[in-house]
Each structure stands twice: as C-alpha cells, then as structure tokens.
Amino acid sequence: MTDSTRQPNLAKTWAIVLAASDTRRLLAVTSGGEGTAVPKQFCSRWGEQTPLQEALSRAGALVARERLCAVVGAAYREWWKPQLWAVRASNTAVQPVDRGTGVGVLQALLQIMRRDPGARVLLLPCERYVARDAVFEHALRQALAHVTAQPASAVLLGFRAESDDPGIGYVLPGEHTHGDLRDVVDLVDKTTAARASDLVRRGALWSSSIVAASAAALLELYQRRHGGVVSAVRQYVEQRDDPFFDAESAAADYARLPTLDLVRDVLRGQESALQVLPVPACGWSDLGTPWVRGGGHVSPPVAPAWRGSLPGLVRHQPQPQPQR
Fold first, then answer.
1. Residue 38 has what pLDDT?
2. More confident residue, 2 or 277
3. Tell me, what's the pLDDT at 32?
4. Cis status of the peptide bond prior to 117, with omega within 30 of 0
5. Interior CA angle at 180 toward 178 and 186, to 5°?
6. Tens digit of pLDDT for each residue in 238-277?
7. Is 168 exposed, middle or buried (0-12, 13-18, 19+ CB in 10 A)?
8. Cα distance between residue 16 and residue 229, in whole Å
9. In this model, does residue 287 exceed pLDDT 80?
10. How many Cβ atoms are within 10 Å of 105's Cβ, its own excluded?
C-alpha cells in the first residue's frame, strides 16, 4: 500500500513497536524447548501470532513499511530477528542492554528524527491484548488525527478499568475536555489494592503506554527531565554511522545509562502536557492476564517458521535478514 492510498494525516507518521522488555513475570509459561527463558512478546499461544507479530500487523495497517520501526534487545536476537522481516534494519533500534521503555523509545525517536525531523510517532507496546481490533484501530487514528492538528500535544490512550487491579497503571482524567480528549490529572504506576479501588471509583482509566505525539513534542518531554540521557543516547545513535564504531565500548557506555520507564520516569510529572483519549470497550488488557487465565501451553516460535503478512505486504517464506 502506498502513501497515496493512505489517509493524508498519516503520511508522516512513524510507528514504533516496543518489544525490548525483559520482563520475568511469565517466564514460567514462556520457556523454549530446552527450558530457555523467552520474553512473552516472542511467544505464541496455541500457534497464534506472537504479540510482536500482532503489534507489527496493527502498525502496518496505519503506516507505510518504510516508517515501521521496532525496539528490541540484543540479548534476544534469535527470537526477534525472524519476526522482523517486514522491518528495515535501519528502522530497528537494538538496545545492547535493556534500559527500559524510556531509553528504548528515545533511541528509536532519535533515529527517526535524523531522517524526518517533522515526524509524528505512534508508540505501540506489543505486550498488550486486544479483542476488538476495529475499535482499537479507530482510537489510534483518532489520536493521530489530534496530534496532526495540534503538533504540540501528546495523547495517551486510556482504557475503561474493568477491575481495580493494583498491578496495572492508571491515568486519572480531568474534567476539562477537548472534543473526545480529556486533560490528565495524574499518572499512577502499579499501586496498592486500596488506592487502585479509589482510582477506579474516581473514574480512572487503565494506562496503556500507547502514545501519539509529534517527535519534537515527545523529545521535549525527555529534555525537560532527562537532558543528559538524551545527549548520551544521541551520541550512541550518531556514532553507529562511524566506520570505526566500537560496538563493545559503546555497549559499555549504554549499560551505564539509567533504566527509565516511559510512563513513570518520563511522562509522570508532566501531566499538563498530556491529554488522554478514553477508548471504548475493546477487550484490552495486559498480556499476562488472558494468557495465564486462559491456560494452555505457551511456546516460542521456531525461527524462521512464521508465515505471516502485514497489510500491503506478502511474504510466504520469510528468511532472516542481516542487520545492516
């Protein structure tokens, strides 16, 4: 599918699929054949698409292939490499060491801005479950339409809290509205059962870590709180073009960066710069909930066995592509 057949407001939009998490919560049910621990985003339940593949498919419905990006971790290259056949090597942000979603997004953001300073970005964590994709895609398009009209804004998707789960983050909307969007009063990380119950009673939404913003606006949020990290990651991104790039030394420098969570360490405390889009019921949840409660065997895909497609892309026998 070419840009001429896409909605005009998506012409400069880049999608960043977040797949670098090294979370340990589901490793008991996401182990390889030899007992090797594999992060849940690379695993398939009952032979379905992996969460990474599903996120890439959703992103591919919104953006052109040349603006499809992924953030991954070097430690799990054997699992993500066969699944990223549709993502150009230049659009893959490989974290030599996991330093959280905050640093991973920043790395991808700076890579994009070197080529497209006026870009808009959509952040899509792949460790989420959605039952009704049409509703979800409509909400993504709404958020992107808003940041196209208001480039200084950043929009966070919030989902109706179907329970007062203390293990999920919350976003508390304000009273002031902007069409379908509302101001953000507070962002709350995983909390106590009592506080989660109080938040739900006050109308809080489940926080998704799904963000739409202009690249410049998102970078400004980073600069305000983590200017030193921005400088360090920019140096890492730029020096990779050096023919004498020392990967081992650069990885050591990267490992000295602080671990940053996108919501907790970057967005929280800057609520006045954010707006939240309440999303109609679409069966959204943290990935661990339906997998664990649904039971059954969860297994990693055997590379390169995935036979999948993205909108406008057909590849029946994908082969691993070398990272350039």
1. 73
2. 277
3. 52
4. no
5. 70
6. 998 888 889 999 999 999 999 999 999 999 999 999 999 9
7. buried
8. 19
9. no
10. 25
Residue type at 49? Q
Q: How many CA atoms lie within 13 A of 71 on its CB side?
A: 31
Q: Which amino acid is present at 265?
A: D
Question: What pLDDT score does 37 carry?
Answer: 67
pLDDT given for residue 47 in this prediction = 60
Q: How many CA atoms lie within 13 A of 204 on its CB side?
A: 25
- Which residues are registered as beta bridge partners of 188? 170
> Does residue 69 carry a pLDDT above 70?
yes
Distance between CA 209 and CA 227 in Å, rounded? 21
**Range in 77-91, 132-146, 277-291 the model is least confident about:** 277-291
Q: What is the DSSP pairing of strand 170-178 with strand 181-188?
A: antiparallel
Q: What is the 3-state secondary structure (H, E, C) of the chain?
A: CCHHHCCHHHCCEEEEEECCCCCCCCCCCCECCCCCECCHHHCEECCCCCHHHHHHHHHHCCCCHHHEEEEEEHHHHHHHHHHHCCCCHHHEEEECCCCHHHHHHHHHHHHHHHHCCCCEEEEEECCEECCCHHHHHHHHHHHHHHHHHCCCCEEEEEEECCCCCCCCCEEEEEEEEECCEEEEEEEECCCCHHHHHHHHHCCCEEEEEEEEEEHHHHHHHHHHHHHHHHHHHHHHHHHCCCCCCCHHHHHHHHHCCCCCCHHHHHHCCCHHHEEEEEECCCCCEECHHHHHHHCCCEECCCCCCCCCEECCEECCCCCCCCCC
> Both tokens of residue 102?
């905050």
